[in-house]
């Protein structure tokens, strides 16, 4: 890219990062069209650069949520623990589907899914807005509602305490990340080149790939066991503030809800070639998790998935690392600006629903941009005479 194009891409990426950060989503669905249609990069290069940009934006979001903006962290580590193994497993399955399905089908499914999700998220935003309006009138009323409305009333009554960072849970999350990362490294790239010489789609390849299933199930079962044991050991423990809302929300749901939602989000994320943040975020909102907790937790989970992709690209010999670092730094700074802006708007207006509407806006823009981007890509391949039907996984 020449200097003018690079500056234009940086400006557009900064705008996308600010908006995405406000909602706690990665923004990869906005970066890809910018890099391809504006920057003129091929899909492979654009995907690699997008991973760096998502990681940079998510890192700043997590740092802000833990250190700068909130009185404690809004990240719910229980949701992250219950979701992360199945989300990483789903990404692997989605990538296989992405290889098998024709591009036109992937684009159509993405447009359909995001269109429906955008409508549902906008509806959730209006419900949240109405609940907040009702809560302003009943500031001193008992918090008898659930989810967002209960969180709003608690914050108005001064009970919005954040979470402390549980280092043991963070260590487990890092271990999950390392296990899946090692499996991807062992499999290598499509040519079987990396530390090991695993033949693509050979017996060793599928054994390594299928081992993700017992690892995800094992970690999820262990997390559920530890959670149940801690609950029995401390039955009288009282949680306060926002933690009460999310704790009660989790307790009121079947234990398989979060792993199954994360698995579906991972599959769709791998299928569409984007991070799972844009997909798990509306799921958590629909479940009833408060918007601020949803945004912080989703961004935290996206940091794990995007950093894994980023390191994989480095190991596989990615080029243009300096350019990737520049774009990542732009998204890092822009994400801080977006997060600070939305937090000040929330404090000034008392409307947590602004987060929901920012997520809706990102989803709507993503639906339009990725659909246009996918249509252009499909047309290019059609003109070049490439196969437009289903393909073998290898």
Automatic annotation (TrEMBL):
Gene Ontology terms: cellular component: Cul4A-RING E3 ubiquitin ligase complex; membrane
Membrane topology summary: Multi-pass membrane protein
Keywords, ordered alphabetically: Membrane, Signal, Transmembrane, Transmembrane helix
Keyword check for Metal-binding: no
Domain of life: Eukaryota
Record localization: Membrane
Protein's UniProt keywords contain Mitochondrion: no
Signal peptide feature range: 1-22
GO annotation terms (biological process): protein ubiquitination
Stretches that traverse the bilayer: 46-69, 81-101, 107-129, 167-186, 206-225, 245-274, 294-316, 325-346, 352-376
PANTHER family: CEREBLON (PTHR14255), SULFITE EXPORTER TAUE_SAFE FAMILY PROTEIN 5-RELATED (PTHR14255:SF3)
Family, similarity comment: Belongs to the 4-toluene sulfonate uptake permease (TSUP) (TC 2.A.102) family.
Protein name: Sulfite exporter TauE/SafE family protein
UniProt organism field: Iris pallida
Taxonomic classification: Eukaryota, Viridiplantae, Streptophyta, Embryophyta, Tracheophyta
């Amino acid at each position: 890219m020449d200097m003018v194009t690079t500056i234009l891409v940086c400006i557009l990426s900064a705008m996308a990062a600010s908006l995405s950060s406000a909602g706690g989503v990665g923004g990869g669905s906005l970066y890809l069209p910018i890099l391809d249609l504006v920057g003129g990069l091929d899909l492979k290069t654009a995907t690699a650069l997008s991973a760096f940009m998502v990681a940079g934006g998510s890192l700043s979001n997590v740092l802000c949520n833990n250190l700068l903006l909130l009185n404690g962290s809004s990240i719910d580590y229980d949701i992250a623990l219950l979701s992360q193994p199945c989300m990483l497993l789903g990404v692997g399955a989605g990538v296989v589907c992405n290889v098998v399905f024709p591009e036109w089908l992937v684009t159509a499914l993405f447009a359909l899914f995001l269109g429906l999700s955008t409508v549902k998220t906008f509806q959730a935003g209006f419900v949240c807005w109405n609940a907040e309006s009702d809560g302003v009138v009943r500031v001193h009323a008992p918090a008898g509602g659930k989810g967002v409305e209960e969180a709003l009333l608690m914050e108005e009554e001064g009970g919005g305490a954040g979470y402390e960072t549980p280092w043991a849970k963070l260590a487990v999350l890092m271990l999950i990340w390392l296990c899946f990362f090692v499996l991807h490294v062992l499999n290598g790239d499509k040519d079987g080149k990396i530390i090991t010489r695993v033949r693509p789609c050979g017996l060793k390849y599928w054994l390594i790939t299928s081992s993700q299933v017992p690892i995800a199930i094992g970690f999820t079962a262990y997390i559920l066991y530890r959670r149940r044991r801690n609950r029995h050991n401390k039955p009288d423990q009282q949680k306060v503030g926002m933690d009460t809302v999310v704790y009660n929300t989790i307790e009121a749901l079947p234990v398989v809800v979060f792993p199954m939602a994360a698995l579906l989000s991972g599959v769709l994320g791998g299928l569409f070639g984007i991070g799972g943040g844009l997909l798990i975020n509306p799921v958590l909102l629909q479940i009833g998790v408060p918007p601020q907790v949803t945004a912080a937790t989703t961004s935290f989970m996206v940091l794990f998935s995007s950093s894994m992709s980023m390191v994989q690209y480095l190991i596989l010999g990615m080029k243009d690392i300096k350019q990737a670092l520049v774009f990542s730094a732009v998204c890092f700074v822009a994400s801080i600006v977006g997060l600070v802006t939305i937090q000040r708007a929330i404090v000034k207006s008392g409307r947590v629903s602004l987060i929901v509407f920012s997520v809706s806006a990102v989803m709507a823009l993503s639906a339009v941009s990725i659909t246009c981007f996918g249509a252009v890509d499909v047309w290019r391949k059609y003109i070049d005479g490439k196969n437009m039907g289903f393909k073998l996984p290898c």
